[in-house]
Amino acid sequence: MGDGKPAILFLGAGGHGKAMLDLVLAHAGWRAAGVVDAAPKVATLLGVPVLGDESLLAELARSGIGHAHPAVGNNAQRVAAAGRLAAAGFALPALIHPSATIGHGATIGDGAAILARVVIGPDAHIGRLALVNTGAIVEHDCVIEEAAHIAPGAVLTGGVRIGAGAMVGAGAVIRPGVMVGTGAIIGAGAAVLADVPAGATVAGVPARPMHQEHAS
């Protein structure tokens, strides 16, 4: 069945679902089994059938599809979707685009997604359900905690730590050794030179808390 490739189901038929399907269609090791969505609006995604809504999950797991991926860009929603997939009986493998470069000693957690042209440096750790988006660079010894999102083109220099559920915007650059707290948001194009507290939003060059910018 499927030329011996393991089948993988996707939950999410939006833009991020399209990006994840593109990853699997470029990957010789997987076969896209289909897509489900909470409220399907299209019949196919990149030529892969949208099978229906999430009421199908248990049936699809029983049919022999053993793997699934929560193809949801929002961090909290991705964690929730992963929980529903796991409860239905699916394994959640990490997915790595064949054009990505993974350094020696790097580790990648279950359900993580590493998209096209990403560079993961040696001894970096990518946590469960983390998303490292197109062209991002995560240098040596960085730690990306659970369900954080590193947006396209962001650069994390050596030894950076990104807290669970945090968001690093497109094109942002983070100085070596900086710690970004749980749930923090780094604006697109920011230059982060100092630690960012949990839940804070920073932006600009150099990055500053947003409320300070508004007050000035």
UniProtKB/TrEMBL annotation:
<feature type="domain" description="PglD N-terminal">
    <location>
        <begin position="8"/>
        <end position="81"/>
    </location>
</feature>
<dbReference type="InterPro" id="IPR041561">
    <property type="entry name" value="PglD_N"/>
</dbReference>
<keyword id="KW-0677">Repeat</keyword>
<feature type="binding site">
    <location>
        <position position="149"/>
    </location>
    <ligand>
        <name>acetyl-CoA</name>
    </ligand>
</feature>
<dbReference type="InterPro" id="IPR011004">
    <property type="entry name" value="Trimer_LpxA-like_sf"/>
</dbReference>
<dbReference type="Pfam" id="PF17836">
    <property type="entry name" value="PglD_N"/>
</dbReference>
<feature type="active site" description="Proton acceptor">
    <location>
        <position position="140"/>
    </location>
</feature>
<dbReference type="InterPro" id="IPR018357">
    <property type="entry name" value="Hexapep_transf_CS"/>
</dbReference>
<protein>
    <submittedName>
        <fullName>Hexapeptide transferase</fullName>
    </submittedName>
</protein>
<keyword id="KW-0808">Transferase</keyword>
<dbReference type="InterPro" id="IPR050179">
    <property type="entry name" value="Trans_hexapeptide_repeat"/>
</dbReference>
<comment type="similarity">
    <text>Belongs to the transferase hexapeptide repeat family.</text>
</comment>
<dbReference type="GO" id="GO:0016746">
    <property type="term" value="F:acyltransferase activity"/>
</dbReference>
<feature type="site" description="Increases basicity of active site His">
    <location>
        <position position="141"/>
    </location>
</feature>
<dbReference type="Pfam" id="PF00132">
    <property type="entry name" value="Hexapep"/>
</dbReference>
<feature type="binding site">
    <location>
        <position position="73"/>
    </location>
    <ligand>
        <name>substrate</name>
    </ligand>
</feature>
<keyword id="KW-0012">Acyltransferase</keyword>
<dbReference type="InterPro" id="IPR001451">
    <property type="entry name" value="Hexapep"/>
</dbReference>
<dbReference type="InterPro" id="IPR020019">
    <property type="entry name" value="AcTrfase_PglD-like"/>
</dbReference>
